[in-house]
Amino acid sequence: MVVVGIIAEYNPFHNGHLYQLEETRKLFPRAVFVVVMSGNFLERGEPACVDKWTRANEALHCGVDLVVELPVAFCVQPADRFATGAVLLLKKLGVQKLIFGAEHASYNFKKLAQQVSDVRGDSVKYNESFAAAYQRAVEKKVGHAIDQPNDLLGLAYAKANLQLGDFLELIPIQRKGAFHHDLCLEKDHSLASASAIRARLAKGSIKEIAAYVPQITSVDFATRKLITWADFWPLLRYRLLTAPYEELRNLYDVTEGLEYRMKQQVQKLPLEADFEDWLGAVKSKRYTYTHLSRLAVIVLLQVTEEEVKSVSKNPYLRLLGFTPKGQKFLHKLKKRADIPLITKASQKLRKKFLSVDYRAGLVYELACMRVQDHGKAPLRITAPSLSRKKR
Amino acid sequence: MVVVGIIAEYNPFHNGHLYQLEETRKLFPRAVFVVVMSGNFLERGEPACVDKWTRANEALHCGVDLVVELPVAFCVQPADRFATGAVLLLKKLGVQKLIFGAEHASYNFKKLAQQVSDVRGDSVKYNESFAAAYQRAVEKKVGHAIDQPNDLLGLAYAKANLQLGDFLELIPIQRKGAFHHDLCLEKDHSLASASAIRARLAKGSIKEIAAYVPQITSVDFATRKLITWADFWPLLRYRLLTAPYEELRNLYDVTEGLEYRMKQQVQKLPLEADFEDWLGAVKSKRYTYTHLSRLAVIVLLQVTEEEVKSVSKNPYLRLLGFTPKGQKFLHKLKKRADIPLITKASQKLRKKFLSVDYRAGLVYELACMRVQDHGKAPLRITAPSLSRKKR
């Protein structure tokens, strides 16, 4: 059985994701499609626009056979660690082929990864970000810039694959229509970036996005609240105002005196300030907005150094949902998996494996008002409907 | 100069408080009236209905000459410790006479205090509250029950006075019209309890309370948001959901495994639950609602054992405001005071003395949207107006 893997956030699930699935399905018509998906907090340091169950359900109705949650500890991370965590889960799932979107699908990602395998991009200059140092080092090695977000993620997957025994065939798919950073919906066709769709949703324009997402996503947005940082800003602000420095310092990746900077800036803000005002106040040449947004999630969820290490040492596969085809695959997987396959967040599992994920769910619930983990079983989609809206 | 002291919360300042001031002014027409007032969080474990500056301003316009803030660490405490902190400040202020309302003004509070000076009421039974054990022990000693809230507070003041050298003349004033627990406004006259007034305000009936408060209080409520536990419940809930047990255990008075009870109950609540639902879930025979509400404030503000000890060891007088008469008194006080007289919450003072009070202000601001401490100077009332509304 061919097992095709995808690493995704689906924030939200849109026509570009559907296009990727349809194109790949043509290449591997009998394969099982397995997705490792971020949960309720994402790689760029932001809450998901709708909860993980809603997004998993959309994916399962649009061609995915099995959705596994990427643990928060792997997810709210820079590209290289995000990729390492996700590719590790793909290996444990027995995935053979990794499909990913790229701005330059013509790149030979495996070869590039070999060229930059020793590039770590540790920045010694204090006025330069890790990301900038990394891209500069990569350019020096390969002879040209790699600076588009999906190309960089693809390279990170390829590097993680090399580290984990080169078990994957890498299949880049040319991104069409909308680049990730584009903020405008393109009126001519049916593709728009996730951020363009979210921006339009934030203005309350559900009708306008209908052409760019499958029908199931449209329906979900009509019945669910759009979650943004604004929902969690009062909680983050409260935590920063009241936390002693030593409790902040104990959190993952709070280094170089960031506990002082984060707390002092929040104290200086006017009472009507929002999350973006705080980010702007904390920003420096050393830290990108994304880096600081991730730190904000770490503080919000109180993720410690120790907890991140624990997930890396004891990874697990948390199932969010499957189709009948996915279920058949699962039966086989159960016999050979060498890490836990988790279907329910029982009290025992919450202590050993899911402590951060469970806590993230409890915080996310405060905004989305839907139970995230307690007593939740994986989704079982009996009749997936490829519900793409006609163009 | 006669210095008359009052210990108050003024939550809100109403006609009963005005009556107390007017009656006492008749007894001591030339005295300076000094009030030690709770700040933004109160003895019964709740946020003040309007901020401390607003309440101090009302008092200064209605006959008080000087308002000093009772530190949060003394304030969110059972009656005996609340009284000890407040009476200590009265001593440092040079107060000679303490006026207090009592349900039984005929009691000889000094004599009662001598009779019960060794009664501590430590409850050894785990199904009995501290308050119940104390009242039982008092009744045994004095031969009759003392169970009305203001009588009990009066007794606590009298005990603290004995401990601190018996420097006060105790002057109980018979409470008129409305007992503290009465929840109905009494239509026949102009007196109603603070809780009755708050209950009516919570229903949005500003007009209905006009007869029971001075005009200045009416005007304040017309222009300010009424603050209740509902404003802080999302923050408390978030903190309980995310705090590790060891961080909760480090907080003041979190003993006997209460960290488990508080956290586990918050996890079990439905998403739409409110503060009262949580209190009800945590309640047991061992803990009164008031005890648990105070703990909730301790958790909300992250007050540690160490911080409470530090305030007891290094007390201070934080000035909230004064009239010209109060200012004259202050000039003399400055020369003889043996603890700091604080007019501004400077960064240096915030570290040494005001850490908890400043943090309490930062949290309260999130609800009331008015700066509480940063850069604030004491109120200077040049022309106090006894602005009681005509009956």
Provide a quick synopsis of the model.
The structure is a homodimer of 391-residue chains. Chain A is of the alpha/beta class and 391 residues long. Chain A is built from 19 helices and 8 strands.
What is the element layout, followed by pairings?
The structure is a homodimer of 391-residue chains.
Chain A: E1 3-8, H1 15-27, E2 32-38, H2 52-61, E3 66-70, H3 72-75, H4 79-93, E4 97-102, H5 109-115, H6 130-142, H7 149-163, E5 169-174, H8 194-202, H9 206-209, H10 215-223, H11 229-242, H12 245-249, H13 258-268, H14 275-282, H15 289-301, H16 305-313, E6 317-322, H17 324-336, E7 341-342, H18 347-352, H19 355-368, E8 379-380
Parallel strand pairs in A: 1-2, 1-4, 2-3, 4-5, 6-7, 6-8
Antiparallel strand pairs in A: 3-6
Helix pairs in contact in A: 4-7, 5-7, 11-15
